[in-house]
Amino acid sequence: MLSSNRLILASASPRRVELLSRLGVKFEVIPARVTEFEDPTADPKYMVTHNASLKADWVANLYPDALVLGADTTVFIDGTVLNKPANLADSKRMLRKLSGKTHTVYTGIAMRRISDSLTLNEGISSEVTFKALTDEEIDSYVLKVNTLDKAGAYSIQDHTDMIIECYSGSFTNIMGLPVEETKQILTRCGHSL
């Protein structure tokens, strides 16, 4: 019998907090203090799973009875990983690269509970097609959306009509945490919803 039904989100991302809240589960936020692996030439599926695991492991070691959720999201296009931009110029470079093309958004989810050796890693992907954007449209977008804290320098839920042609797969995955898949994973881990 599990001694705890405590759920911890190992992330300070306001989008992940918002998305996990949609499930109506009680959880705490304890950001992991780890250095994420961010190599533009990395395999994106490996990278997000690795980073999600790093976060979950770090927090789970502090709270061995809790179920800990770690997540990481990135954008992948033309063989290159687009993480969070370094500055505004980098944001604009990324948006130009995405313009008029389809890319993949990968999220890695890691669940850990030390007390019963629970270890689970999942990967989810979605496809997003951008409209062809002019430099003026890109300038206008970066004035309206904080692109610096988002992989690929965009937010699908903010001013969507300015940049997005269409998408397939989980919309919440593109935001940073696939809600339906996370619900299924929590259930599989024996967490009461």
Q: What does this molecule look like?
A:
By secondary structure, the chain is an alpha/beta fold. It has a single domain, classed as Alpha-Beta Complex (Maf protein). Helix content is 35%, strand content 25%. The chain is built from seven helices and seven strands. Strands 1, 2, 3, 4, 5, 6 and 7 form a seven-stranded mixed β-sheet that branches. Helix 3 crosses helix 4. The model has no long low-confidence stretch (mean pLDDT 94).
Termini separation comes to: 17 Å
As a percent range, the share of strand residues is: 25-35%
**What is the third-level CATH name, the topology?**
Maf protein
The CATH first-level class comes to: Alpha Beta
Produce the secondary structure layout.
Elements: E1 7-9, H1 14-21, E2 28-29, H2 44-62, E3 67-77, E4 80-82, H3 88-98, E5 102-113, E6 118-130, H4 135-144, H5 160-163, E7 164-168, H6 171-175, H7 179-188
